[in-house]
Amino acid sequence: MKNSIKILIVEDDVVVAMGIKSELQKIGYKRIDMANSHHTAMRKIQEDAPDLILLDISLKGKKTGIDIAYEEEVFDKIPIIYITGLEESQIEKEILPTRPKYYLIKPIRYKELRVAVSLLLSDKMKIVDIGYNFSYDFADGTLLGARGLVHLGKKERFLLERLIEQKGETVSTSILEAKVWGSKPPKSESSLRTLVGNLRKKLKPKMIVNDVGFGYKLPLPKELS
Fold this sequence. Notes:
This protein is an alpha/beta fold and 225 residues long. Helix content is 37%, strand content 21%. The chain has helices at residues 14-26, 38-47, 65-69, 88-95, 110-120, 154-165, 173-181, 191-202, 221-224, and strands at 6-10, 31-35, 52-56, 80-84, 102-105, 127-131, 134-137, 142-145, 148-150, 171-172, 209-211, 215-217. The longest helix has 13 residues, at 14-26. The radius of gyration is 21 Å and the shape is elongated.
């Protein structure tokens, strides 16, 4: 699903723009375009309406990012995350009337950027928060951690999805094996334990709890405290 999401970065500082693009690519977004002026941005918006605009205030030329936000094709139609160095008083006066979804203060903290983008686009994807700054996107089978995308093998994805679907409940070994291996049984009795161990290393060890003799579960947040 992330492969179909279109993001437009409107920023006149190429270093900042490339940094944002690189960070978004790390978490799976591929269709990212850039513009450095009102004219270029509006042409790209009209040609291929993005799902999200990351918008700086100061741009090349006379018109600003705020002018873009008020354009008919954008206002209340395309969600905006402002990237700005403005003071809080200026933000309240100039930015908030354009109804942005979020605004990020320069210098950008990439963790805040990832969270803002993921939350804003979550209605387009089935993204589930599983705790410890991890979220899982069922639409394209990607696990996102605080440091970016976490690579999962096919069996690890199947296992994690089943545990998420019944989060807070212990899922029996037999059900998990059926989810992961289907009608073909695993090679040995230790196969599931090995798979769980590998997945734990990519998450946090205590995020997968072993109910000895029965199965495994993803605890609810209150159980992790």
